[in-house]
Automatic annotation (TrEMBL):
It comes from the Bacteria. The keyword Membrane applies. This is Uncharacterized protein. Keywords: Membrane, Transmembrane, Transmembrane helix. Pfam families: YphA. It comes from Parageobacillus galactosidasius.
């Protein structure tokens, strides 16, 4: 069932932000983003001849907002990373379309895993990884829809398949970041115990 990963991930994010995080501006913004994305996921509109979901537009413009806040040097690096993700996303989707024999497992998980690896290689902090993931994936989705249109293949930009892929990749990035923080915490505890010993 398409959309199950998307709904699960964003509802979890909303519940964590609402019930477990401290009452800060970041917590309110995170909860609002998760809730708005869920609400807009079932609404679509036509831009020219392209059908686009509002959740796609919301995530895309939100990621563009955070991208615009980067310095020139970081912005150039982000553009390179996002274009890499965009071309990888489009290439994988075209491979699924024209030569699906190479897809040996669920394509959503394969694509999400590929995007996770690329984001992991380009950035170290979770905020930059998530922005890069969303910007690059949205660009790849737009590029793939343009190519699909040229071969007379109707495609909804930002469908549940796209949202599932983004959700799985983001979830993997968050889990990896959690493991990194746990490792740093454990290492810090070991160093404190080592200094206390005579």
């Amino acid at each position: 069932m398409e959309g199950i990963y998307f709904y699960s991930f964003f509802w979890i994010i909303w519940m964590i932000a609402t019930f477990f995080m401290k009452k800060t501006r970041q917590r309110t913004m995170l909860a609002a983003i998760a809730l708005i994305t869920i609400i807009l996921s079932s609404v679509s509109l036509y831009i020219g001849s392209f059908c686009v979901t509002l959740s796609f537009l919301f995530l895309f413009f939100l990621s563009c907002y955070f991208t615009a806040k980067q310095t020139r040097r970081k912005l150039l690096y982000l553009v390179i990373a996002a274009l890499t993700i965009a071309f990888a996303y489009t290439s994988f989707q075209l491979l699924v379309l024209f030569d699906p024999v190479w897809i040996w497992m669920d394509r959503t998980w394969m694509l999400a895993g590929m995007l996770f690896i690329i984001c992991f290689l380009f950035y170290e902090n979770i905020q930059s990884r998530l922005v890069c993931l969303i910007v690059g994936s949205c660009q790849g989705e737009i590029l793939y829809s343009i190519i699909s249109k040229r071969v007379a293949f109707s495609y909804i930009i930002g469908s549940f398949s796209f949202l599932d892929t983004i959700s799985i990749s983001a979830f993997c990035l968050l889990i990896w970041t959690l493991f990194e923080q746990i490792a740093v915490y454990v290492d810090g505890k070991k160093q404190i115990r080592g200094t206390r010993q005579p």
